[in-house]
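User: Structure please.
Assistant: Input sequence and predicted structure:
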Amino acid sequence: MRFIYRSILISGFLCCGFSSYAGTLCNDDETSIFDCKFSKKIASVCMARGDGLLVYRNGTREKIDMEISDGGRKNNKFYFSYRPYAGGGEAHIKFSNNGYRYYIYDKIIKADDGHDFSAGIVVYRGDKKVANLGCINNASIRQQAYSSITRESYRNIDTE
């Protein structure tokens, strides 16, 4: 069952552009907001330098499997939320597509031996969590997202 949902997550519908370096799917005229590496794919949230257009891409530099764009500030598809914790916090970028809600997250929790860091993408269909894909790199939501993306109330997305 998890394989089916993972296939839904990475199946795409638009193909475009190439990235400027291997760690991101952002184009040369975009700023990287988040880059998450999986074993064979990358998920990136990018912001156009001129108009602030946001775009999510998933795939490889050679083949984009999925691309979601907000179409400009008046057509918000991306929302940002944040909750501080004692010794850390959790940030989300949310967008929806074809009945699925995607939450890009990074989380820092104070632990006995320092801090635990985690980042990834949690996918919901309705109220049911169907995937939690963890990044294998040291991914985090960049500071620019905190001031640039439309805010919404924080929701617990069960990143465990």
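The chain has two helices and nine strands.
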